[in-house]
Each structure stands twice: as structure tokens, then as C-alpha cells.
Amino acid sequence: GGPEMGTETPVEAWQKICAELTAYSEELGKRRTVLCLTKSDALDPEELEKRRSELAEASGRPVHTISSVAHEGLKDLLGGLYKVVQQEKARAELSEERGVDLSDLAD
């Protein structure tokens, strides 16, 4: 995508999705997200890195890049997802131990 093709940039798409999630449910809008650019094999490496870094800067989060066709980036994405799940599990356990809701804390 991109302006030259008449479609949204990854940053614009991410902002739109965040707004839609929050409009649907404030709680859902607050949940942690894992960002991933797909079809990385369809872009030249410079354009892919440009889009990844722009989205990472706008979101303040790491951005994974994957190509399911080329089987690239999938292990890194799964490792990132595993890390998020473990952090959320630890946060939930700590919340329960202390009797305090820690779900709104920044990660």
C-alpha cells in the first residue's frame, strides 16, 4: 500500500485500527498489541525497513515483519507473542497476589 497506490500507509492503518478498537470497547483499546507487517517478500528491503521503522516510531512498539510464503520472520513473531503472553501472565498473577488491578500499567 501507500499513497501512490491510493491506500493507507501502515501507520495510518494502525491508527485507524486502534481508533476502531477503542470505539468498540475502551477495554479492548487498552490491551497490548503485537504489530506485524506481512508479505515482507513483496517489498524491497529498503521499503520494508522504512515502513517497519515508521510504524515502530509511531507506535512505540517493536514491529515484526513476516512472509508466510517465504517462511521468514515467523519464529521471531512467535517468540514475541510468547514473551507478551508470559508478561501478561506474570502481571495477572501479581495483580491477584496483591489484590490490585495492574492491567493498566504500561508494558
Radius of gyration: 16 Å
Assembly state of the chains shown: single chain
Name the strands of the widest sheet in spatial order: 1-2
Mean of the pLDDT scores?
86
Number of strands: 2
Q: Write down the secondary-structure element order.
A: HHEHEH
Largest sheet, strands/sense/barrel: 2 strands, parallel
What this model shows, in words?
The protein is mostly helical. It has helices at 10-24, 26-30, 45-59, 74-98; strands spanning 35-37, 63-65. A two-stranded parallel sheet has the order 1-2. Helix 3 links the parallel strand 1 and strand 2. The model has no long low-confidence stretch (mean pLDDT 86).
Key descriptive features of the protein:
single chain, 2 strands, 107 residues, mainly alpha, two-stranded parallel ribbon
How would you concisely characterize the structure shown here?
The chain has 107 residues and is mostly helical.
What is the element layout, followed by pairings?
Blueprint: H1 10-24, H2 26-30, E1 35-37, H3 45-59, E2 63-65, H4 74-98
Parallel strand pairs: 1-2
